[in-house]
Amino acid sequence: MEERILVIIPTDIQKAQKMAQKMAQSVGFDAGGAGEIAIAVSELASNLVKHKAVRGEIIVRALEEPGKSGVEIVSRDEGPGIADIEQAMEHSTVGTLGIGLSSVRRLTDEFIIRSTTGGTVVSARKWLKRVASLQMVFSVQARPHRSEDVSGDAYFIKYLPFGLVFGVIDVLGHGRDAWVVAQKALRIIDEEHRKPLDRLLEECHVGLGGTRGAALALCRIDYENNILHHVGIGNVETRVYGVADPPHPFCFNGTVGLQMEHYQVHSYPYRKGMIIVVFSDGISGRFELPRELETQSPEAISGWIFNGFSRDYDDATVLVGK
Predict the structure, then answer these.
(1) What pTM was computed for the model?
(2) Domain residue ranges in the chain
(3) What residues contact residue 135 under an 8 Å CB cut-off, 6+ apart?
(4) What is the rounded distance in angstroms from the CA atom of residue 265 to the CA atom of residue 18?
(5) Which secondary structure element, helix H or strand E, spans residue 226, and what is its range?
(6) Secondary structure of residue 283 in the 3-state scheme
(7) Do 78 and 87 meet the contact criterion of CB atoms below 8 Å apart?
(8) DSSP-derived secondary structure letter, 134
């Protein structure tokens, strides 16, 4: 099964998202997996519109291979191509194609770019994981400082065989220099996320040495033992809702990459139905989630927080898992 759409104007982005989400659900992805596929398509389609791609097109295919199924997303155009793909991915300047590509790579399992003077093809695959980690569904709302095109905030969601790791990064300052540090932190997390949280935090601290540093909140859910592990450094915040007597995770003073003196990973009982909210300091913490919102979707919750409490003079990110 395959569907495709030419992407020319902004309304085509929403059409491509809906097309991808419907395809993902038909394959068997739950709301969380289908939502991540829709985000990846949005990033690719937005690039086609922003850069006025020649015959820009999004193709979504259902995949069936022995023992597994999934979705493939293809973005293609007939433009001049990318001169240096690696530089576009890791050191993108404002206005280049690479701005959204790292997010697509983070959200999918397989990622390939081919680019020549005749055009660029991006192919990304996401496989259906029939494991307990898909119990939690996520929604993320984010935007850069009002005077910037890229953000020093970043988020990550990494699935494990019987759990997952997720969180938010907030690099000091904003703009392209902060974005570069955030991308470096994401590459470290890509490689090291299977390690215990204290080890993962130390890897980030060492890897960001010599940079401007970052605040970081890490959450790990162990579904086998029903435990939520948490550690945070700096001006990020984690809150828990949706259950009686929720835990109150907190972040220690310090800056990852510069100075971390005293910190500890705390563990709490994990109960199905927990709503976990992680946000950067571009979101005002002066809110309490209304009880009636606890029954709503992660998209509704993140939208309420972001629309009501984001600050346009800073990078802002809120991640909601439910």
Answers:
(1) 0.63
(2) 2-127, 132-321
(3) 223, 272
(4) 39
(5) none
(6) strand
(7) no
(8) G
Would you state the structure tokens that stand for residue 43, as one six-digit string?
């990033």
pLDDT tens track for 129-177: 654 444 688 999 999 999 999 999 999 998 776 788 999 999 999 999 9
DSSP summary character for residue 139 = E
- Phi-psi domain of 92 (left: phi exceeds 0; alpha: psi -120 through 50; beta: other): beta
Can you tell me which residue has the tokens 């109960």? 271
Contact status, residue 253 vs residue 207, Cβ threshold 8 Å: no
CB 99 within 8 A of CB 151: no
List, for residues 172-221, the tens digit of each pLDDT value.
999 999 999 999 999 999 889 989 999 999 999 999 999 999 999 999 99
E strand or H helix at 127, and its extent?
A: strand 119-127
Position 131: which residue type? Answer: V
Q: How far is CA 84 from the centre of its chain?
A: 24
Class at the top of the CATH hierarchy for domain 2-127: alpha beta
Distance CA 195, CA 109 (A): 19
In angstroms, rounded to a whole number, what is the distance separating the alpha carbons of residues 144 and 121? 27
Place of tokens 């569904």: 137
Angle between helices 176-192 and 197-207 (to 10 degrees): 140
**Side chain identity at 65, as an amino acid letter?**
E
Write the DSSP symbol of residue 295.
G
Query: 266-269 and 316-321 as β-strands: parallel, antiparallel, unpaired?
Result: unpaired
Q: Which among 91, 92, 89, 26 is positioned nearest to 60, based on CA atoms?
A: 26
The DSSP symbol for 150 reads S
**Best CATH choice for the domain 132-321 from the list 3.30.70.1120, 3.30.450.20, 1.10.510.10, 3.60.40.10:** 3.60.40.10
